[in-house]
Every structure is written in structure tokens, then in C-alpha cells.
Specification:
single chain, 5-stranded parallel β-sheet, Rossmann fold, two-stranded antiparallel sheet, 9% strand, binds thiamine diphosphate, binds magnesium ion
Length: 390
């Protein structure tokens, strides 16, 4: 099967190797090589172009169902993904296109999924909110607010169990579990934090605090909105506030948090301050906030910030920027054409990849039987994430 993984992303070995052995800025933060920074700029821009096209395709009714774009928040997915290894599990909510592309899913597989077509990452059965990529260790894409937070604890439990009980402590992993600020008020999140604290689970909860849960501002709907760290501290989690509009802050902050979680097998919580430029979903006219507020956030745009930084330091020429943007535009256009040409799944697919019978009783090695679809084996084994989805 053709690879659905983008082969041209920045290599994790480059990034982590550099931060381990390079010179340091006056700030004490490790210097990062130019190709890594240019790769991040490219990935953030690719996500933005991709989603701009998604919005157009949605208006043309090529995409159905719900669609929540990530525009404005790109530094979070790209910076966080760079701070962990490709083998570390990631799970997120429904605003998930950025995470999928940052993790290495191709824009073709992502767009075909948006279109509900057979070449989509979930064979067209999931749509916008359910980006899954098992070989890149992306475990969704979840539509119920907060539902992914116990899954994050479960993934961390799974990797810890495999590491400590089965593999003899040789392959420590850390799970990244993204959630919106609205999910802070779900009981599931608090249960998950309690278990993570109790069981020493290596999971980092990244709260993408964009200030709104649909049309409700965080200060109207959430206690201690000005200091979310106290919620995590109540469960014994490490915590940090990070400027999610600056990819360097995201990367460096997350590197510290994730390395610590991995080394100590302890959970952590990050209040990642960010902003979504567009409405909650495609049908939101954003009447609950002012244009002035939006402009303040747009002035600290993550793509422009990194671009300016690279231009000022002579690492990005006008020509290179033009090339980067035109490649990203071409990639997004290509994904639309690919999705349009991909077949609609046959009706018989309704009965594939569903459980054939109830799973149980659990014997320690049993797996649920799947009806006519792929084998349902757990996978924490992907290496560099180059295999694509099988
Ligand atoms: C349990 C549950 N309640 C309500 C909803 C409806 N709903 C969908 S998105 C959303 C807002 C969540 O906001 P937030 O967690 O801040 O994420 P953001 O959209 O800002 O990324 C709500 C209430 C839902 N999907 N699930
Ligand atoms: Mg929110």
C-alpha cells in the first residue's frame, strides 16, 4: 500500500540531537539548526493552507458534517510534536487536522478523510473530527469533549506497563493528550488526572487554552480561568504556562515538561495560551467577541512570528519564503484533487472494521475480533513513522 506518511518533515533526530549538543542562546535555551526552524515554518504554513482549502471545500459542500479549523493554533501542534519522539502516543479532540499533519499524516489522507472517501486515514468513516494514524501513533480525533483525557491516561498506562513489565524499562514513552479549555470542566478530565497522579503515569495534558468553549469565554465558564495550574496541582501534576503563539516557547517549554515526565514517569499539565482565529466550527459567526480582540491575537501570529525571526537572522530569503508558500499551496490543491478522485466507500464497508462479537473475558492477551477489517493489534512499535497507515 502507498505510504500515507509525509516523508519530507523535519527529522526528530536532527532536532533532539541539536538540543543535546549545541551552543546556547543568552536565554540558556539550546540553539536550533536552521533546517529545523524552516521545517516548522513550513509545517505551520502547510496546516494553514490546508485548512483554508478545507473551509472553501466545506462551503462548496464537498465536506460534510462538523468541521473545526485550527487556524491560529498551529504552533501548538507543530511545537509539541517536535518535543516528543514519533513513538510517543498522541491523542486529541476534534480540532485535529493540525495534529494529524504535524504528526506526519499526508495532506492527501487527511483531506480524503474530510471528504469521507475511501483513501482517508479512517477509510472515510470518521471525517474531520476523527483523524487516526496508528503507524504514526496518533490515536484520534475525538468528538466528545474530554473523552480523550481518560484515553490519554490509558495510553500512558499501556506504555508504562509495556516498558516496566514487559520490556524491562528500556523504552520509556510519554503520551501527549491535547484538550480544549472547555474540557477542563468535564468529570472525565478530573478522573483521568486523579488516576494519572495516583499511578505515576507519564502523560502530559496540553490544554489548548484558546479562551473559548464554543461561544463561552473561559472566564464565564471556568473557575480559576486566570490560573489553571491550580487544577492540576490539586492532583499532584507538574504544571507550566506556555505562550502557544510562539513555537520556540512551545518547543522549549514542552521539551522540559516532556523530558521530565518521561524520566520520572510522572504526569504534567500545560496551560497553553493560544487563540483560534476562526469560529468554533464552520457555522459560527463569532458574535460573542470583538474584532478588536481578534486583531490583538492576530498581531502575534505564530507563522509571522517565526517568519520574521528567520528573516531578521538571515535564515529566510524572500525567494525561499515564496517557494515555501507556493509548495504548500500546491500540496493543498493536490490534496483536494486527490480527495475528489477517491471513491466513496461501498455500502458493504458499513460492516467492516466493526467488532464481530463482545470482547471478553480479558485474558491478558486476547484482542477483539474485527469483522472483515484490519487486524486489531496494539501498536507502540512504529519507529520513524515512515510506514503510513496500513
Ligand atoms: C460532552 C460534550 N458536551 C458538549 C459537546 C458540544 N461541544 C462540542 S465542542 C464544545 C466546546 C469545547 O470547547 P474547548 O474544549 O475549549 O475546545 P475548542 O473548541 O476551543 O478547541 C462543546 C461544548 C460535546 N461535543 N461533548
Ligand atoms: Mg477552547
Amino acid at each position: 500500500m502507498t505510504s500515507l506518511t509525509d516523508p519530507s518533515r523535519s527529522s526528530h533526530a536532527d532536532i533532539h540531537g541539536a538540543s543535546a549538543g549545541s551552543s546556547r542562546h543568552a536565554s540558556g535555551k539550546p540553539e536550533l539548526p536552521a533546517p529545523v526552524l524552516l521545517g516548522w515554518l513550513r509545517d505551520m504554513y502547510r496546516i494553514r493552507e490546508f485548512e483554508t482549502r478545507c473551509m472553501q471545500a466545506y462551503q462548496e459542500k464537498k465536506i460534510g458534517g462538523f468541521c473545526h479549523v485550527y487556524i491560529g493554533q498551529e504552533a501548538v501542534a507543530v511545537g509539541c510534536t517536535a518535543a516528543v519522539e514519533p513513538t510517543d502516543p498522541i491523542v486529541t479532540a476534534y480540532r485535529d487536522h493540525g495534529h494529524a499533519l504535524a504528526r506526519g499524516m499526508t495532506s492527501r489522507a487527511c483531506m480524503a478523510e474530510m471528504y469521507g472517501r475511501i483513501d482517508g486515514c479512517a477509510k472515510g468513516k470518521g471525517g474531520s473530527m476523527h483523524m487516526f494514524d496508528r503507524n504514526n501513533n496518533l490515536f484520534g480525533g475525538h468528538g466528545i469533549v474530554g473523552a480523550q483525557t481518560p484515553l490519554g491516561a490509558g495510553l500512558a498506562f499501556g506504555t508504562k506497563y509495556m516498558d516496566e513489565v514487559i520490556d524491562g524499562g528500556t523504552n520509556r514513552r510519554v503520551t501527549l493528550c491535547f484538550l480544549g479549555d472547555g474540557a477542563l470542566n468535564q468529570g472525565a478530565f478530573h478522573e483521568a488526572c486523579n488516576l494519572a497522579g495516583l499511578f505515576d503515569l507519564p502523560v502530559v495534558y496540553v490544554c489548548e487554552n484558546n479562551g473559548y468553549s464554543m461561544g463561552t469565554s473561559i472566564h464565564r465558564g471556568t473557575t480559576m480561568g486566570h490560573n489553571l495550574r491550580v487544577k492540576a496541582e490539586a492532583y499532584g501534576l507538574d504544571s507550566m504556562v506556555i505562550d502557544g503563539m510562539d513555537i520556540l516557547e512551545v518547543y522549549h517549554g514542552m521539551k522540559v515538561v516532556c523530558d521530565r515526565a518521561r524520566a520520572n514517569s510522572r504526569p504534567a499539565f500545560v496551560d497553553m495560551r493560544t487563540y483560534r482565529y476562526k469560529g468554533h466550527s464552520m457555522s459560527d459567526p463569532r458574535k460573542y467577541r470583538s474584532r478588536e480582540e481578534e486583531e490583538v491575537w492576530e498581531a502575534s501570529d505564530p507563522v509571522q512570528r517565526l517568519r520574521n525571526r528567520l528573516e531578521t537572522s538571515g535564515l529566510l530569503t524572500d525567494e525561499a519564503w515564496k517557494q515555501l508558500t507556493s509548495q504548500a499551496k500546491a500540496e493543498a490543491r493536490d490534496s483536494l484533487e486527490f480527495a475528489d478522485a477517491s471513491p466513496v466507500p461501498p455500502l458493504s464497508d458499513l460492516y467492516r472494521d466493526v467488532y464481530a462479537e463482545r470482547w471478553g473475558p480479558y485474558t491478558g492477551s486476547s484482542q477483539p475480533l474485527m469483522n472483515g477489517g484490519s487486524e486489531n493489534t496494539p501498536s507502540f512499535t512504529a519507529t520513524e513513522g515512515k510506514e503510513g497507515i496500513s
